[in-house]
Amino acid sequence: MDISEFRRQAHELVDWMANYLENVREMPVKSECEPGDILEKLPDSPPEKPEEFSQIFADFESIILPGITHWQHPSFFAYFPANSSPPSLLGEMLTSTLAAQCMSWQTSPAAAELEECVTSWLKQMLDLPELLTGVIQDTASTATLCALLTARETRTGFQINEKGFDGKESFTIYCSAETHSSIEKDVRIAGFGKNSLRKIAVDNEYAMIPENLERAIEHDKKSGFNPLCVVATIGTTGSTAVDPLRKIGEICDRHSLWLHVDAAFSGSALILPEMRWMSDGMEYADSFVFNPHKWMLTNFDCSAYFVRDPKALVQTFEILPEYLKTSEGQPVKNYRDWGIQLGRRFRALKLWFVIRSYGLEGLRAVIRGHIELAQNLASKIESDDNFELLAPVPVSLVCFRYHPSKIKDESILDELNEALLDRINKTGKVFLTHTRLSGRFTIRMSIAQTQVTSKDVGAAWALIKKTAKSL
């Protein structure tokens, strides 16, 4: 494809992209494909000769698009969002065009310095402690792994990086029973082993019980273990429960444990002054992560990770072969040493576009609006005799179930709600997901998609009630 052809096709693609954003609500939000449907339409072997782009794009529309679940659909209420926005898309287009590999300052000075600027902006926007320094990672899972590895190396004087585990460390890591599954995965990857993870009981609002945490730490110390790190969560995946950060931080301080704060989804709400009760005690944090690619209108992937001791982070990951040595020295940040990957995308650009395009005022309006929509829906559920809320609604996730008063058997209620969720999703009009809270099958409705309106939420609620009556 020459530049002339690229220009023509690019213009057509931009029109397609704009039409997609404008009309996405007319599509089924969840793909209706069965397993194998896409694969059987794809050739078994790659083409020997070049194909016309028009044919490639036609196949995209006829084969690929039907297999897409539309995360940018305003009726996407599943999981947590992977939001986008027009400014972010434009930033991604430029990032792809530049195609820079931004592993060090020398490989693109603008990428390194813009990342430094944007993470500083984020720190101000969320009112994080001044002692934290930011870097952009791909996902919260990676950021948490960085935290665990840095905690490990700091505790051992960076000796495990040198010599490996000797089998005598007996480290233990603590999180709540509601913490995201990525914590356990990271514990495994970091070499601690699943058995080193202590899942602390939660209260009636699904937040970690600090007293239970301290008892577990003290018990482990007496038993010859070496408590290392606590992962506190601002907005658990199941219910967006908020762990009591100050009390947890005080415990970590008393016992000299690393405190990592996972605010992957809910952290974006900290741009609202009225939501900063969630981060009370953040001064105790050794590390903190949140994902602008969830609720700050920025395309996946873009995770903001903050550390109290950037020197320890760099020492954990820095490897300097001859071919990576440059002459700039200490004045610059070579972000390849701030995480796991050597190669890095220019993620700061799209985030810069978003923050400047919306401003704090615009971003606050979006997030405040989502929280208001969730609160309104929660009120409707509470006033309906056939439905019940199963968790508090601190941000924009509503956890509920269908519960006709005549049904008391929990197993029947589980089956009923599982059937309800399945029927709703099969309509293609709404996409919801589930979890279990206190063992109960719970329907989750995450109201945080960029384009969602009160009309979309109202239509979803009407569909939920109508479908429930048909069971």
Task: Estimate nothing, just give the exact number of structural domains.
Answer: 2
What is the count of β-strands?
A: 11
* CATH topology descriptor of the largest domain: Aspartate Aminotransferase, domain 2
Helical coverage, percent range: 40-55%
> Could you state the order of secondary-structure elements as H and E?
HHHHEHHEHEHEHEEHEHHEEHEEH
CATH architecture of the largest domain: 3-Layer(aba) Sandwich
Mean of pLDDT: 94
Q: How many alpha or pi helices?
A: 14
Instruction: Report the oligomer.
Output: single chain
N-to-C CA distance: 55 Å
* Cross-sheet strand order for the largest sheet: 1-7-6-5-4-2-3
Structural class: alpha/beta
CATH C-level class of the largest domain:
Alpha Beta
Rg, Cα atoms, Å: 24 Å
Uncertain residue ranges: none
Shape: globular
Assess the beta-strand content as a share of residues.
5-15%
By CATH's scheme, which homologous superfamily of the largest domain applies? Type I PLP-dependent aspartate aminotransferase-like (Major domain)
Fold and architecture overview:
With 471 residues, the protein is α/β, with parallel strands linked by helices. The protein folds into two domains: 7-43 and 59-84 and 359-471, Aspartate Aminotransferase, domain 1 (Alpha-Beta Complex), CATH 3.90.1150.170; 101-345, 3-Layer(aba) Sandwich (Aspartate Aminotransferase, domain 2). Helix content is 42%, strand content 12%. The protein is built from 14 helices and eleven strands. The protein has helices at residues 3-23, 53-64, 86-98, 109-125, 140-155, 159-163, 181-189, 210-222, 245-255, 292-295, 310-317, 348-382, 410-426, 454-470; strands spanning 133-137, 171-176, 197-200, 226-233, 258-262, 287-290, 303-307, 387-389, 397-402, 433-437, 440-446. The strands form two sheets. It has a seven-stranded mixed β-sheet with strand order 1-7-6-5-4-2-3, with helices on both faces. A four-stranded antiparallel β-sheet has the order 8-9-11-10. Strand 4 (226-233), helix 9 and strand 5 (258-262) form a beta-alpha-beta unit. Helix 5 packs across helix 7 and helix 5 crosses helix 11. The longest helix is centred in the C-terminal third of the chain and has 35 residues, at 348-382. The chain starts with a helix and ends with a helix. The mean pLDDT is 94.
